[in-house]
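TASK: fixed-backbone design
INPUT:
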C-alpha cells in the first residue's frame, strides 16, 4: 500500500516535472517583446538635466554613463581640467547618440566644464555656465574627491587641508550651489559620494583624514537634507566600497599584496567595477527615490557587515 502511494506520488511528481505548466511554458517559449526592456518609468532620467563633479574619469564618468543609459540627454561634466572634461563630454556624446537611438541626435547635449570644487567661486562659475547652457539642473552628483595614505604622525598639514578642501568643502559648495538653483525651480536631487570609510576604518593602509572627511560628507548630507526637505531638494549619500578606478589603482601600484588583502576582507571576495554603482546612482537621482532624503546607500560587496 505504502509502495503504491509512493509510486502514485512519484508519478504525479514526474508528470508535474515533465509537463510544463502555464508559467513554465511561457518562460520557455515566449520570445522577448520587441524594444527596450520594460522597467519602472520613475527610474528614467529622460528630460532631466544632470551634472556630475569629478566626472572626467572614474566613478563620476560612470555615473554619467548610467544617466545617459537611463535616457538623460542633457548633461554637464565638471572636472579640474577643461580639456579632460571636454574629452569626456565628446566620448559620452558618441555613447549617448548610440544608446538613445530613438531620440533626435541634435537634441543630445553634453558639455565639459572646468571646475575646482575646492574653490567656491569656481563652483559658482561652473553653475553659471551650466545654467546658461540648460536653464535648470535636476540632478547633481558630487563625486570629485581624493585619497592619500599617510600615518597620522607623517601627514603634512597642507595636504590634510587640501584633502578637506576637496572632499568636504567641495561637496558642500557643490550641494549649496545646487540647492540655490533647484529651490526656485521646485526641487531636485543631490547625491554626495561618501565611502564605506564613513562607517568603518580601512586596514591596513592608514587614511584617517580621508575616513573623517567621508564621515563628514555623510552627516553633511543628512543635515542638508533636513534643511531643504520641505523645499523639494533631496540630499542622499552613495557610499562605495573598494572600486577599481584610478584612485585605487594608484594605491595598488605601490603594493601588490594590498588588492588580495582588500578582497579577503570583502565578503563577496572581489573589488567592485564602477558600473556596479549604476543602479544605485540612478535610483538616488531619479524620481524612483522621491520619498528618500538624508539616507545612505552602501555598495561595498558586504564589507561593512562583518
Ligand atoms: N574608487 C573607490 O574605491 C572609492 C571608494 C569609495 C569612495 N570613493 C569616492 O568616489 C569619488 C570618486 O572617486 P574615483 O575613484 O572616481 O576617483 P578618481 O581619482 O578616479 O577620479 C576623481 C575625479 O575627480 C577629479 N577631481 C579631483 N580633485 C578635484 C577638484 N578639486 N575639483 C574637481 N574635480 C576634481 C579628478 O580630476 C578625477 O577626474 C571620490 O569622492 C572618492 O572618495 C571612491
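OUTPUT:
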Amino acid at each position: 500500500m505504502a509502495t503504491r502511494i509512493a509510486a502514485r506520488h512519484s508519478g504525479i511528481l514526474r508528470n508535474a516535472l515533465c509537463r510544463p505548466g502555464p508559467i513554465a511554458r511561457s518562460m520557455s517559449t515566449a520570445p522577448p517583446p520587441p524594444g527596450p526592456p520594460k522597467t519602472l518609468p520613475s527610474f528614467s532620467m529622460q528630460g532631466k538635466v544632470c551634472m556630475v563633479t569629478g566626472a572626467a574619469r572614474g566613478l563620476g564618468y560612470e555615473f554619467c554613463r548610467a544617466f545617459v543609459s537611463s535616457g538623460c540627454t542633457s548633461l554637464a561634466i565638471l572636472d579640474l581640467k577643461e580639456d579632460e572634461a571636454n574629452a569626456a563630454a565628446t566620448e559620452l556624446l558618441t555613447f549617448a547618440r548610440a544608446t538613445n537611438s530613438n531620440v533626435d541626435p541634435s537634441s543630445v547635449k553634453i558639455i565639459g566644464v572646468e571646475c575646482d570644487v575646492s574653490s567656491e567661486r569656481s563652483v559658482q562659475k561652473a553653475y553659471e555656465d551650466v545654467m546658461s547652457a540648460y536653464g535648470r539642473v535636476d540632478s547633481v552628483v558630487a563625486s570629485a574627491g581624493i585619497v592619500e595614505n599617510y600615518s597620522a604622525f607623517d601627514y603634512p598639514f597642507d595636504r590634510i587641508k587640501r584633502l578637506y578642501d576637496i572632499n568636504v568643502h567641495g561637496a558642500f559648495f557643490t550641494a549649496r550651489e545646487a540647492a540655490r538653483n533647484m529651490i526656485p525651480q521646485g526641487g531636485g536631487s543631490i547625491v554626495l559620494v561618501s565611502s564605506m570609510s564613513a562607517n568603518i576604518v580601512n586596514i591596513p593602509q592608514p587614511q584617517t583624514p580621508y575616513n573623517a572627511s567621508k564621515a563628514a560628507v555623510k552627516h553633511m548630507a543628512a543635515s542638508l537634507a533636513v534643511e531643504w526637505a520641505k523645499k523639494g531638494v533631496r540630499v542622499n549619500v552613495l557610499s562605495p566600497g573598494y572600486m577599481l578606478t584610478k584612485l585605487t589603482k594608484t594605491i595598488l601600484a605601490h603594493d601588490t599584496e594590498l588588492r588580495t588583502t582588500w578582497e579577503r576582507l570583502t565578503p563577496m571576495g572581489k573589488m567592485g567595477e564602477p558600473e556596479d554603482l549604476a543602479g544605485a546612482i540612478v535610483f538616488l537621482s531619479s524620481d524612483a527615490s522621491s520619498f528618500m532624503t538624508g539616507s545612505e546607500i552602501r555598495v561595498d560587496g558586504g564589507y561593512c557587515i562583518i
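COMMENT: The pocket of nicotinamide-adenine-dinucleotide is lined by residues 53-54, 56-60, 79-80, 115-118, 143-147, 166, 170, 193, 195, 240, 242-243, 245-248 (CB under 6 Å).
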